Fold glucan endo-1,3-beta-D-glucosidase.
Amino acid sequence: MDGNQESTSEAVNAYYSAALMGLAYGDTHLVATGSTLAALEIQAAQTWWQVEGDDFYGEEFTRENRVVGVLWVNKRDSGLWFAPPEWRECKLGIQLLPILPISEVLSSDIGFTRELVNWTLPALGRDGVGEGWKGFVYALEAIYDEESALEY
């Protein structure tokens, strides 16, 4: 197998959207299925993509990463399909877009969310960083500090 996944937030939002569609149509089975799959995807994202401590992925990987770029069946990468490992704002953004109410659930560990934002902020000073990618960092920061996020 050579399957891989780059954006957990897009997967979460697909299931979240299915649950919302179920609400709109009055389909309780679709609501339950979409909600369950969204919850499972969130748990998987927090387990496999959010890099906390050095026990799970090892000290060498953890030193430079707070999120996994691409997770394969048998390996993990620091970079993304479209961005090198140093583009931390893209690595954060791809795990957050699109921003919807369920994004706060995906980022519910405030301690880790703060660590992820602090890990990413220095990368925003690099030449060529797009305002859109910066926006994802500030949106994530707003989960725990609205005032600071609005200062940018």
